[in-house]
Amino acid sequence: xxxxxxxxxxxxxxxxxxxxxxxxxxxxxxxxxxxxxxxxxxxxxxxxxxxxxxxxxxxxxxxxxxxxxxxxxxxxxxxxxxxxxxxxxxxxxxxxxxxxxxxxxxxxxxxxxxxxxxxxxxxxxxxxxxxxxxxxxxxxxxxxxxxxxxxxxxxxxxxxxxxxxxxxxxxxxxxxxxxxxxxxxxxxxxxxxxxxxxxxxxxxxxxxxxxxx
Amino acid sequence: xxxxxxxxxxxxxxxxxxxxxxxxxxxxxxxxxxxxxxxxxxxxxxxxxxxxxxxxxxxxxxxxxxxxxxxxxxxxxxxxxxxxxxxxxxxxxxxxxxxxxxxxxxxxxxxxxxxxxxxxxxxxxxxxxxxxxxxxxxxxxxxxxxxxxxxxxxxxxxxxxxxxxxxxxxxxxxxxxxxxxxxxxxxxxxxxxxxxxxxxxxxxxxxxxxxxxxxxxxxxxxxxxxxxxxxxxxxxxxxxxxxxxxxxxxxxxxxxxxxxxxxxxxxxxxxxxxxxxxxxxxxxxxxxxxxxxxxxxxxxxxxxxxxxxxxxxxxxxxxxxxxxxxxxxxxxxxxxxxxxxxxxxxxxxxxxxxxxxxxxxx
Lengths: 213, 362
Fold this sequence. Notes:
The complex is a heterodimer of chains A (about 210) and B (about 350).
Chain A lengths: L7 H64 L1 H11 L5 E8 L2 E8 L19 H87 L1
Antiparallel strand pairs in A: 1-2
Helix pairs in contact in A: 1-2, 1-3
Chain B lengths: L8 H12 L5 H9 L3 H9 L4 H10 L6 H19 L2 H27 L4 H5 L10 H9 L3 H10 L5 H13 L4 H18 L6 H25 L6 H6 L9 H10 L2 H6 L4 H17 L2 H17 L9 H25 L4 H7 L4 H7 L1
């Protein structure tokens, strides 16, 4: 236990600290509940998106393999040269329950039409088009996934931090303060008893002296 | 030494028929699909015409042999052999049939430049079986930009430079949209090929039928894919390859229908309509690829059937070219299936055999 001066002012100070800690704990519990309310639906959404991404990736890989087989790798690579490009995303910040969270949005649509992929539709089969479209869908899902997973991670971290704080207040800080208050109380009691006893002794001596006289 | 007349279909076709005897049968493919592992698949391929190429692929990289490249090298060798064995009109017509590889090579170089690929990356993807020489293609691939490629093509007097020079200003004006150059190339290629197939000669007619079928296939595939897109008539017409069976009005009319079911039911040519109806039945499940697949298979059927028209005609060469291309596709499908550990039934579903060939094998 921390070294405590068993004084009345210290007792008042510690009691004030307990009150403050309890208020803080209540607030943190409310924050934790609010974060949980935000967090749980995101878990669900993340799981769904992750499954969707997994399925889309498998689907795209199969389409690519079949396109490579039918068209030949050289045709696919050739088309790949034409479609080489970048996907731009916008990243900005927002706050959820005071937690800073980055928001990731597409600034250019990764899913293109048959006429905007960079090659001519007249010389490329539907199989290649379909494969390209499936991979564009993956990019789209990846951006959505990056956004939601970052949100999930940040909220999760904050939830963990808040939980740790609540636990620390509930199980360590407040019990310790209560212990200190108890200690100060008992010390003050002890001192009062000692004073009382001493006074009684002094009184007895005074009375004895007066009797002799 | 006796001089062989290379323009004589009798001599050339005897050689091509010899090459045709090396084509893999349906029974072989079925056994290939049933192989338990890659080693047994490799052993089976070792017993075929692909032996040298697949062994070289293993020597180059025993861990991950490049079978795709091996098959491609075999195809290049086979088609070059035919080109070398022909002379005169037979050589010219074979060149026309293989000119689509020139078109693909030119596009690959332009796409490579657009996508900042290195010269070696581009060169490794070329299929030098057309009329363009490999050294010319390499020279084009070494250039820095699309503009320089076109200028080199001009210098080398490559006919594809003409549409590219004409379309280049529009390409620059429209944010360097490569599809403008590619459409110009496609249109020029088919126009040029069809222009060189004039006359009433049976051999010319057979080649014309195949090229015309290819154009129709591309136009139908385009129509299927652009259905529902809001395009004005000018934009739609821009996507039509003009020398096929579909006229401008027919193409625009079919696009205006917007709906795939109507497009199929109102397609003017009954032969294609029947194919499209068959594809439509699979459409829900496999989306637009069903249409391309049906059309491609029809083209293979037609190509292979040409071998039966006249043994002393270009038909034997056409038949071999299409059968060989189809064989390569089937082999790649099996290799892909084995690599991806696909069930045998799934691999079989993707394969395509021509009935006549399987009957022969039986």
